[in-house]
Amino acid sequence: MKALAVAVIAAALAAPLLSAPVHAAEDRSRAPRTGFEQTNGARWTSQPEEQGFLAAVDRASDRVTLTRIGTTEQNRPLRLVRIGERPATRTVLLICSQHGDEPSGREACLTTIRDLAYAKDARTKAFLSRTTVLVVPTANPDGRAAGTRGNSDGVDVNRDHLSLRTAEARAMAAVLRDRRPDVVYDLHEYGATPPYYDKDLFDLWPRNLNTDTAVHAEAQTLSQTYVRPAAQSAGFTTGTYGIWTDPVTGDPIRQVAGDGQERILRNISGVKHAVGLLIESRVEPSTEGTPEPDNNRRRVNSQLGALKGLFSFAGERGRQVDAVTGAARLAGHRDTGPVYLGGADNDPAEPAEVIENPACGYRLTGDQYTEVADELALHGVRVRRDNDGAGTGAYVPLRQSLRALVPLLLDERAPYHLTAGEADTGC
């Protein structure tokens, strides 16, 4: 088994490999281990084991804080782990297992939490002095318990980041609003279709056309210059999520997933000015007859290999990321440029999907505001209350940080709008 140990993160942060172990042998012996590690990949870590593991890490390290950010329909906790020193200049957020039947990302997240918490080397300490790492270890606990893609209501949480109808998506929206992560890294798994679609790892950046150009470029850099090379160096094959390729020429022949739909986390991350990246590990073994524990370890180790690239990116390009995410958050206040209701970076929007001259804002009646007030607040959308003559309504201006998000939520032409506000065109 490839080591699921602290050296994984140390190597990711170091240009050359460190010449000494990250922490002393006595520290390693005391470090908690996941159920997956204890069984050498024979089974996945259970929810009670995860809770005990996180509590042990929290107790052992001053740089770790464990908080409850929500509760599922079946009364399971949604937890956020914070690792780092205060104050930090940037924030990286890992979202693990939004789909309950995709466990390898969760296992990689758990060991990453432990490894960062226990690391003693100067390079990792310096990294954590500049970068806060946030982790949602299990973003869909009810689905995880049932072994299902969706949550307990059968909802795909990764299609709810606009409407925010699920407790899981609401908790994550609050984290995006309150912590304003500069990088959002979303860990998943996929089913292979050989020979066209069977890499160890696929990834994809925000394709939504409302993503700031510089943020979009940084997301592609994260993918193509850091995550894929790191995974390849660890011995894993990589490609672009959702694109089938000819096994001989490598040319794209079909797109089966990965559009610009704003309900998906990687896309809403871009709309909210974070450098987003989806990562997908292959479930099936590449060789028939591979023992299940061996394949499980490959799934987890491919995720860990990619995470090395993420942390290298955050360490080496942190200042550039700070600059582009900060500029993107301010750009909406200038209130210029079109808003896109469809299309993607590889699929130009149709004329009907482009609002060339957006309204100044949207007026909501009292009833409308009552219906969507919580969702607007969770997204962090700025609202002005007013009186519409029949009750207390609201006005939502476009001139704000989340300028492009407002029409996606309130314009009747947007495919997933929450309510149809009255467009104010008297700018």
Automatic annotation (TrEMBL):
The keyword Oxidoreductase does not apply. Residues 43-307 form the Peptidase M14 domain. Pfam families: Peptidase_M14. GO terms for biological process: proteolysis. SMART domains: Zn_pept. InterPro entries: Peptidase_M14. Residues 36-45 have a biased composition (Polar residues). Residues 23-45 are annotated as: Disordered. Residues 1-24 form the signal peptide. Keywords: Carboxypeptidase, Hydrolase, Metalloprotease, Protease, Signal, Zinc. Its cofactor is Zn(2+). GO terms for cellular component: extracellular space. The active site is at E280 (proton donor/acceptor). One of its GO terms (molecular function) is metallocarboxypeptidase activity. Coiled coil: none annotated. Belongs to the peptidase M14 family. This is Carboxypeptidase. It comes from Streptomyces lacrimifluminis.
